[in-house]
Amino acid sequence: MDWGLKNRLARIIRPHSGRGVMLAVDHGYFLGPTEHLEIPRKTIQPLLPYADSLMLTRGILRTSVDEKYPIPVVLRVSGGSSIIGKDLSNEKITTSVKEAIRLNASALALSIFVGAPYEHESLVNLGKLVDEGEEYGIPVLAVTAVGKELEKRDARYLALSCRIAAEFGAHVVKTYYCENFEKVVNSCPVPVIIAGGPKLDSELDALQLTFDALHAGAVGVDMGRNIWQSDYPVPMIKAVRALVHQRVTVKEAHEIFIKNKEIEKAPKPTFETIAAQPKTKTKSTKSKKTKSN
Ligand code: 5RP
Questions:
Q1: Residue 278: its pLDDT value, please?
Q2: 208 has which bridge partners?
Q3: CA of 270 to the centre of ligand 1 (A)
Q4: Which tens digit of pLDDT belongs to each residue from 183-238?
Q5: Rounded-to-integer distance, Cα 208 and Cα 177, Å
Q6: Cα–Cα distance list, 7 to 16, 19, 86, 197 (Å)
């Protein structure tokens, strides 16, 4: 692996912990204005300080992220189908590597659809993208997409998809958590990170899923909905971050979530509430006269 590629990868999987928190906000590329991501800038901005990297399309990067903010970008470069179209697996590479370089991307992301009608095309896309990425020292994140068939998310299928992604040269693979997740991680020779999937019933459930995936060998998350569809996205990403980097327990992570949620819920002082506060006497700051000789 070349220096540049290793350097870019280290922006995503942080060397101090060997892990990473990637914030996924690329959903609009086939879902349009997903719930809680209708105005991307509003969703993304408060979460940036707690993410190691940001996964998104060029359109949302250009319009909704401040170019002066130093966040490593994982650029989604595949697409071409929508949720209301015929087949979600019919994707092509939609963004060139030249454009990715222009956007200072730290990695390229592309979906593969193993077992779907366009399996072949998506795998060939991956091979091509890895060839190009290697040429310029840009790592490739392969996303093992399941389209609308969420029930596909079992260890047998995901191990097959992740392994194929690694065989095609992906540098990191993103997949879903499942039972026997060790099987998925152990048979994939490159780092695996997990998507959160659709929003779970509670934040505690999402934290448990994250913990279990990390415990089974995942090196981090590429999480979206379970963070920004929470009523408290910042407390949630802080809790996820603590699981990933500080290796806290689920209980500790949940306490971080609750504590930060309470801080957010507490009424913020307004001009009126400050003005209404009784004035407290402040000590005179005049220094006592000292004897002069
Ligand atoms: C969609 C994606 C998403 O980035 C991925 O699913 C992660 O987001 P979430 O945690 O909401 O599942 O790649 O194809």
A1: 77
A2: none
A3: 38
A4: 999 999 999 999 999 999 999 999 999 999 999 999 999 999 999 999 999 999 99
A5: 11
A6: 14, 14, 39, 29
Shortest-distance Cα residue to atom 14 of ligand 1? 145
Pairwise CA distance, residues 249 & 104, whole Å? 35
What does the pLDDT look like over 226-263, one tens digit per residue? 999 999 999 999 999 999 999 999 999 999 999 999 99
Domains identified in the chain and CATH numbers: 3-233 (3.20.20.70)
Nearest atom in ligand 1 to the alpha carbon of residue 111 is: 14
- Alpha-carbon separation of residue 20 from 10, 138, 155, 224 (angstroms): 9, 17, 23, 14
**Prediction pTM value:** 0.91
pLDDT, one tens digit per residue, over 72-91 is: 999 999 999 999 999 999 99
The residue annotated as part of the active site, out of 6, 128, 174, 251, is 174
Taking the CA of residue 293 as centre, how many other CA atoms within 13 Å lie in the half-sphere pointing to its CB? Answer: 0
286 is catalytic: no
Question: How far, in Å, is the centroid of ligand 1 from the Cα of 221?
Answer: 10
Nearest to 27 by CA among 64, 91, 82: 82
Residues 53, 72: Cα–Cα separation, whole Å = 5
Mutation test of ligand 1: which of 26, 47, 172, 194 has the most ligand atoms closer than 8 Å to its C-beta? 26
